[in-house]
Amino acid sequence: MFSVLAAIPKSSSRNRTGSWRSLVKPHYLQKECINCGLCKMICPEGCIEGTEKNQYSADLDYCKGCGLCADICPKKDIEMVSNQGTE
Amino acid sequence: MSERGHFEEHCFVSGHTACAGCGQSMAARLVADVAGKNTIVTNATGCLEVFSTLAPQTAWGTPWIHSLFENAAAVASGVEAALIHLGKLDSIRVISQGGDGGTADIGLQALSGMLERGHDILYVCYDNEAYMNTGIQRSGLTPFDAHTTTSPRGTHSSGNPKQKKPLVEICAAHHIPYAATASVGNPRDVQTKVKKALDIRGPKFIQIHVPCPLGWGSEPVDTIKIAKLAVATGLFPLVEYEYGRLLRVTKLPSPKPVEEYLKLQGRFKHLLKNAAELKKVQEVAQKNIEYYGLNSKA
Amino acid sequence: MKQFLEGSWAFADAAKLCRPGVISAYPITPQTHIVEHLAQFVANGELNAQTINVESEHSAASVVLGSQACGVRSFTCTSSQGLMLMAEVVFNIAGMRMPILMICANRALSAPINIWNDQQDSVSLRDSGWIQMYAENNQEAVDLVIAGYKIGEKPRVMLPVMVCVDGFILTHGMEVVDMPTQEEVDQFLPPYNPPYKLDVEKPLSLGLLGGPDVYIETRYAIQKTMEDVLTILPEVGDEFKKKFGRESVRLIEEYRLDDAEVALVAMGSVCGTIKDVIDELRQKGQKVGLLKIVTYRPFPEAAVNKALAKVPYVGVVDKNISLGATGALYTEIKAACSHDKKISGFVMGLGGRDITKNSIESVFSQSKEKVNSCTFVDLHNDLLWEEFRV
Fold this sequence. Notes:
The complex is a heterotrimer.
Chain A: E1 6-7, E2 24-28, H1 38-42, E3 48-49, E4 57-58, H2 68-72, E5 78-82
Antiparallel strand pairs in A: 2-5, 3-4
Chain B: H1 5-9, H2 23-35, E1 39-43, H3 47-52, E2 64-66, H4 72-86, E3 93-99, H5 100-105, H6 108-117, E4 122-127, E5 153-154, E6 157-158, H7 167-172, E7 178-183, H8 187-198, E8 204-209, H9 213-216, H10 223-233, E9 239-242, E10 245-249, H11 258-262, H12 275-292
Parallel strand pairs in B: 1-2, 1-3, 3-4, 4-8, 7-8
Antiparallel strand pairs in B: 5-6, 7-9, 9-10
Helix pairs in contact in B: 2-8, 4-6
Chain C: E1 2-6, H1 7-17, E2 22-25, H2 32-43, E3 50-53, H3 57-69, E4 74-78, H4 80-95, E5 101-106, H5 120-124, E6 131-134, H6 138-152, E7 161-166, E8 174-178, H7 182-188, E9 205-206, H8 215-244, E10 252-255, E11 262-266, H9 270-283, E12 288-293, E13 295-297, H10 301-308, E14 313-318, H11 328-336, E15 342-347, H12 357-366, E16 374-376
Parallel strand pairs in C: 2-3, 2-4, 4-5, 5-7, 6-7, 11-12, 11-14, 14-15, 15-16
Antiparallel strand pairs in C: 1-8, 6-13, 10-12
Helix pairs in contact in C: 1-2, 1-6, 3-4, 6-8, 9-12, 10-11
C-alpha cells in the first residue's frame, strides 16, 4: 500500500498565491519597455510573461505583490498600483 | 497544470509558498532555468524545500528529491553514481542545493565528501544568513552583529558576535574546478556563473547571497537593492576560484559605507546609533576589500 | 557450488550476485571485510558497480538513497555506531519507500565502546520501516540477501531490507556455504524496475513535505505493506526453495517444538547453539525446543502464537535490552501469546559475552522457575557496585 509519495511536475499551479496580495499589484504600462527581460528574470514567483517590447505582464493569479519587477525595471515602465478592483 | 505560458518557460514555477520578495525563490529559478530540463536536483531540508514541495504539490519541473537536512550532497553523490552506472551522465546534470545552515553547518561534512570525491555535481548554497525555516536562528553564515533569535541584541549584546564562515574558501580549498560567490543583486551574473559551472565536469560550488525579507527585517521590494548593497559595501564579495586559486573578483572602485546596507534591515537597526559597532562592521567590509583585492586596479 | 568461506566473503559474494549498480559504505568493525571484498570485486572487474567511499555512514546511507531513487539497485552495510549515525537516513529511506538492501553486522552500542556482538544496534531500529531478517548461519545470510532484494523490490512492497548477521560470529566465521551461480540468481531476481524514480523523461518530485493532512496515511501505508509482507515473504521463500532447495527464507523456524514442554525463542546465530543443547537435552529425555525468529519485522505475531500454542513454558533470549523495560523480543513474544502462558525473558550475550551451552541449559531450566520476569544471565557480580569505584 502507498500514500502520497511523489508529486507531478509543476503541480503547484493549483496553488493560486495571488490571493496573498494585500496592498499593491504591478501595472505594466507597456510604453517604454526595451525588452530587457529583467522583470521576468527576477520575479520570485516566475509569473511574468512576455518576449517582446511592451508585451510583458504579470499573472495576477500568482503575483504576491512584492514590487520587485517595478523596482528593477530600468525604464520605470511598471507601476505598483492599488490592489483594489480588477485590472 | 495551468495553461499559462510561464509554467512552460520555467523549471521552477509559480504556486510555491515563499514569502513575497523572497531572494531564495528568485535565485532558485535563476539556477533551475539555466540548468534546464535535463537536470536532477537534490535539495536539503529548509525554506526552499518547504515552500516548493508541500505535498501533494511541487513547483519543480525537473526530477527533484529531498531526503534530509544535512545529506543533500551525499544524495546527489548517489544520483551521480547511478547516472554513471546507467551511462547517462553525459546528458544529465546533477545539482545539489541547500540553505546556509544545511550547507555550511550541518551539511558541511557531506559537502566536503562530495567535493573531495570529485563527483560531477554543482552544489548551490542559497545564503540568507540564518536558519530562516525554523524562525531566524544564527547559522555559521550569519554576519557579524546581525540580530537573530539566538544571537539577539540586548543590553549585553550587539547581535551575532562571530564572523561569517568563509564557506567559498573552504570549498575552494578542496581544489575543485570552480567555486564562486554570486548575488541576486546581479541576476545576470548568477546565471553566467551557473552556466560556467555547469559546463565544467567535476565538483562545482556556488554560494548565492539571497536576502530574506522576513528574517532580515526588510521590505520585500528592497530584496535586490539590499543584495546589491551587500556587494557594493564589500560585505559580500563576489569572487571566483578555479582549482583552489582566486582568479576573478567583482571590483569595488568606490565601496559604499556599510551604513547604507545596514539601515534597510531590521536585523541591524541596533547598530545605527552605535558608532563603535558600526565601525566594527565597516572593518569587516574593509578586511574583505583588502583580503580579496576588491579595490585593486589590476 | 559448495565453498568454505569466511562469512563476510560469502555475504559480499551474495551481494555481488544481485548485481548492485551502486555500493556505498563506511568502514566499521565487524562489517569491514564485506565492503573490502566488494571493492575488490569491482577492482577486478568482476562486478560492474560504482563504489562510493564516503566520509560517514550517514552519507553512505544517503548515497544509496540517491542511487536507488534513480532506479539503480544499491547496497550498503554497516554495524553498531554506524547504524546509529545512519538512523536518521534509515527511517527516511523507508519513508521514501526505497528498497535498498543493507547487511547489518550486529555489534554492541557504546558506551563502553565495544566492538563485539549483540543485537542492540538493529533491534533499536526495529521501528524504522525496514524489513528485518536475522541469519542463524552464513548460508542463511547468503540466502536472505538474495531473497531480500526480491522481497523489498516487489512493486507492492517497495520497502528496504536489513539482513542482520551476528558480528564476528558470522562475519568472521568460516563455514561451508552453497553459493548459487550467477545464472541461478539472475533467473530468480529480475532487474530492478521501480514504479517511481528520478527520471528526466518523466520527472517527479520525491521526498515532499507531508503535513498533518497526509502524514499519517503514509505511515499507515507502510504498516499495511508490512502486513502484506507476512504473506509475500513466505511466497518468495517457496520460490527460493524451489530454485535453490533451501528453506532459509521464512518468518520463523520451529525446531523440535511439537511436544516441547519448554521452548526458547531467539534470533540469529545463538539459535545454532540452542539447537545443539536441545539435541543433547532431548537425549536425556527433556522435552525442549526452539522457536527461531527469522523475520523480526514485520513481526510474525500469528505464526509465533501458533507455534507456541501448545508450549507451556517459554524462555525468550534477547541479545539486546530496552533499558528501563525488558528485552525487546520478550515484550513482543508476551504480546503475541495468550496471557496464561508462562514466559520468561533472558538478556544475555551483550557486548560479545559468550553464550555457552551451559548458559542455554540454565536458561531452559530457569524458564520453568522465573516465569513472567526478565533477567540478565551470567552476570559477574564482582563487577557491580552500589557506589562509584575505580
